């Protein structure tokens, strides 16, 4: 456990794209909150610009994206590009959804830190964040 | 005596739950003592627990209706012809996200979404291509669309006109269930009140003009897939159904004029017996409410007819071939539950769009059930089973408890606005996920019996050029159409939306004038506004 002076890592959890499948994003948001992170869920149909706005406004260190419509190859890189444009590349982006393996490799090359696919234990996501932010809450 | 033997015998200690997947506690054994005391129930007789047809599947098998759509209208048209040639008996259209959300393919927020999880339809021109060479008077078609449902139905009617098929001869189903969008799938656009008006407009219009059309498919599928339990799926869906009935009655319609064309759509999950109990309870509850609360006189109004789809959420990306077995179990539950039509998922749907081969295996699974397994030979074969009858009653009781809670909140729409359903579903989804993590529930290949091998499986990919091609088609439609007719139609629609006229004729004229889906929706948004949900985690 980190010292109490350390602010817990703040995570923006967002649904990008047009689909409204929010089961996964809500389960993950709740698990991250239970693990001690500060979680802000943006709700549905966020554009990449809206997500980055929210992250900057909330001073978040992490953005978690969820999508189930198949538009991940357009929208995930668009979030990364928007972070670059706003000079906020220190914000870590991860994502989840129905995303084929080949796409995962490409997305990682484009700056998405990690992708979690269906069936991932929640503890794996928490574990990954703990490794990434060893003294940041959780 | 048995009880003592049971208790003295060693019990399994694997820690796996023995309650149903929805958490209904189960006894290790059911006997005559558990059979409810009631008059004998028979198929085709009120309350239809054992089925709505006296002849069950002896009279007619369920319709094998595979939900399908991707890329362009042209490519989907090819897939439909392939499925029909392979013995499929009805069509079911999957639209892409922009179409579902009432946007044209060239809208900025359609970026990356065109043709991905369904077919892209922007105007009547696309719909003509989608059904080219498919005689609409001879097949039935189901269309999964909600906020813009009235527009797509008008497009279908307009295509039929061009084929020389009168609207009165059309058969099929429009999902058109906006309440479950607010509750679960979240593809809402307008606020609840104007959304309900559009639903009632289409029901009222079809009662006169398209009498063989199922005007709505009141859906539990999405509620379940969003994480609800079986009981919640059943209770929320039937509550939605009653909310539509109330809205139509308020419009001044007579119950027996619209009730026979209300249809339902349920999930078939992996917990075999619970699902069968759910289907049987659904029929009994609906029949009772229609006859007793709403005073429907016609038997057709009492009968709950439903489509079933096997559970997408039960499929696993790990060892995906196992999904064939899961789907077979779920489909069997649907058949033993007496479904009128069925979609079986393809094994690769958890990875992406189904390939031709996976889609064919899914269809073949139904054909095996129908023709090899013997499941269709006897009506409601589980009727009278101590266990299934007791479980049917238990599911019914728990659904009734939910009806009371919804009533206490003031009805379905106030409960939506209070986030009641959303929270119930999110809680259930989280509970289930925790049970998986604690291995109190097992998913084969996911949290137990894993293998460390990559199974290469073909995935259907959408050509990234499709988006610009579809946008080009759309520009051409706008260029070629009679712009004055189109503008007039949209203006009349806007004016009508501000009043109280039934909007269907105005939408139909806009569609005939090749107004795009996005333009028609925008005209309605101008009057109705849009709805945003307060996000609840």
Task: Kindly list the characteristics that best describe this protein.
A: about 140 residues; alpha/beta; Rossmann fold; 5-stranded parallel beta sheet; globular; B: about 525 residues; TIM Barrel; about 50% helix
Write structural notes for this entry.
The complex is a heterodimer of chains A (138) and B (537). Chain A is built from 5 helices and 5 strands. With 138 residues, chain A is α/β, with parallel strands linked by helices. In chain A, strand 1, helix 1 (23-34) and strand 2 (38-41) form a beta-alpha-beta unit. The longest helix of chain A is centred in the middle third of the chain and has 14 residues, at 72-85. The radius of gyration of chain A is 14 Å and the shape is globular. The mean pLDDT of chain A is 92. With 537 residues, chain B is an alpha/beta fold. Chain B has a single domain (32-437), classed as Alpha-Beta Barrel (TIM Barrel), CATH 3.20.20.240. In chain B, the strands form 2 sheets. Chain B has a 5-stranded parallel β-sheet with strand order 1-10-9-8-7. In chain B, strands 2-3-4-5-6 form a 5-stranded parallel β-sheet, with helices on one face. In chain B, strand 9, helix 14 and strand 10 (341-343) form a beta-alpha-beta unit. The longest helix of chain B is centred in the C-terminal third of the chain and has 24 residues, at 386-409. The interface between A and B is large, with 38 and 45 residues.
Gist of the model:
The complex is a heterodimer of chains A (138) and B (537). Chain A has helices at residues 23-34, 48-57, 72-85, 101-109, 122-132, and strands at residues 10-15, 38-41, 62-67, 92-97, 114-116.
The average pLDDT value of chain B, as a whole number, equals: 95
Largest sheet report of chain A:
5 strands, parallel
Enumerate the spans of chain B where pLDDT stays under 50 for 5 or more consecutive residues: none
Give the proportion of residues in helices of chain A: 40-55%
Whole-number tally of structural domains of chain B: 1
SS-based structural class of chain A? alpha/beta
**Text of the CATH class of chain B:** Alpha Beta
CATH class of chain A: Alpha Beta
- Total helices of chain B: the number is 22
CATH topology label of chain A: Rossmann fold
Q: How is the largest sheet of chain A built, in terms of strand order?
A: 2-1-3-4-5
> For this entry, what is the oligomeric state of its chains?
heterodimer
The 3D shape of chain B can be described as globular
């Amino acid at each position: 456990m980190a010292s109490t002076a350390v602010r817990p890592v703040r995570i923006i959890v967002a649904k990008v794209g047009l689909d409204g499948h929010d089961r996964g994003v809500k389960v993950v948001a709740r698990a991250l909150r239970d693990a001690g992170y500060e979680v802000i869920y943006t709700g549905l149909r966020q554009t990449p610009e809206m997500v980055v706005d929210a992250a900057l406004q909330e001073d978040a260190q992490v953005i978690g994206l969820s999508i189930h419509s198949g538009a991940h190859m357009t929208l995930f890189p668009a979030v990364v590009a928007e972070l670059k444009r706003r000079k906020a590349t220190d914000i870590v982006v991860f994502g989840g959804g129905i995303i084929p393996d080949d796409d995962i490799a490409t997305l990682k090359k484009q700056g998405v830190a990690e992708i979690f696919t269906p069936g991932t234990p929640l503890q794996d996501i928490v574990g990954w964040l703990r490794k990434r932010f060893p003294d940041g809450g959780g | 005596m048995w009880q003592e033997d049971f208790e003295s015998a060693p019990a399994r200690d694997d820690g796996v739950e023995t309650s149903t997947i929805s958490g209904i506690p189960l006894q290790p054994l059911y006997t005559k003592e558990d059979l409810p005391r009631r008059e004998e129930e028979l198929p085709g007789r009120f309350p239809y627990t054992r089925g709505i047809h006296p002849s069950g599947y002896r009279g007619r098998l369920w319709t094998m209706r595979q939900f399908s759509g991707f890329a362009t209208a042209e490519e989907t048209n090819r897939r439909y012809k392939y499925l029909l040639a392979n013995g499929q008996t009805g069509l079911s259209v999957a639209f892409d996200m922009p179409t579902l959300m009432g946007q044209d393919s060239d809208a900025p927020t359609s970026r990356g979404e065109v043709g991905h999880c369904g077919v892209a339809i922007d105007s009547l021109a696309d719909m003509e291509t989608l059904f080219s060479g498919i005689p609409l008077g001879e097949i039935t078609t189901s269309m999964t669309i909600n906020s813009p449902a009235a527009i797509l139905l008008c497009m279908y009617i307009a295509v039929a006109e061009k084929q020389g098929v009168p609207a009165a001869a059309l058969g099929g189903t429009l999902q058109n269930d906006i309440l479950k969008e607010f509750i679960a799938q979240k593809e809402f656009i307008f606020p609840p009140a104007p959304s309900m008006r559009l639903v009632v407009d289409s029901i009222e219009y079809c009662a006169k003009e398209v009498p063989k059309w199922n005007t709505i498919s009141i859906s539990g599928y999405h509620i379940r897939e969003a994480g609800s339990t079986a009981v919640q799926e059943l209770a929320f869906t039937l509550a939605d159904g009653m909310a539509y009935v109330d809205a139509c009655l308020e419009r001044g319609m007579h119950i027996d004029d619209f009730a026979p064309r209300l249809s339902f759509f349920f999930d078939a999950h992996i917990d075999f017996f619970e699902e069968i109990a759910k289907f049987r309870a659904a029929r009994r509850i609906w029949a009772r409410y229609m006859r007793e609360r709403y005073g429907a006189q016609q038997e057709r109004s009492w009968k709950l007819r439903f489509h079933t789809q096997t559970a997408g959420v039960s499929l696993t990306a790990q060892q995906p071939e196992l999904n064939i077995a899961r789907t077979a179990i779920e489909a069997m539950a649907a058949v033993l539950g007496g479904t009128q039509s069925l979609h079986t998922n393809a094994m690769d749907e958890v990875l992406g769009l189904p390939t031709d081969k996976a889609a064919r295996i899914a269809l073949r699974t139904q054909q095996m059930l129908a023709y090899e397994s013997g499941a269709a030979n006897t009506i409601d074969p589980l009727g009278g089973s101590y266990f299934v009858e007791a479980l049917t009653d238990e599911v019914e009781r728990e659904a009734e408890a939910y009806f009371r809670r919804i009533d206490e909140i003031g009805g379905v729409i106030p409960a939506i606005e209070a986030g009641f359903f959303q929270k119930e579903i999110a809680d259930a989804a989280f509970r289930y996920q925790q049970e998986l993590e604690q291995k109190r529930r097992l998913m084969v290949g996911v949290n137990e019996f894993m293998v460390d091998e990559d199974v290469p499986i073909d995935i259907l990919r959408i050509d990234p050029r499709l988006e610009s091609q579809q946008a080009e088609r759309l520009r051409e439609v706008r260029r070629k159409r009679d712009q004055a007719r189109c503008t007039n139609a949209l203006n009349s629609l806007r004016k009508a939306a501000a009043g109280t006229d039934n909007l269907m004729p105005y939408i139909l004229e806009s569609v005939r004038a090749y107004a795009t889906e996005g333009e028609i929706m925008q005209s309605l948004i101008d009057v109705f506004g849009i709805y945003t949900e307060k996000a609840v985690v």
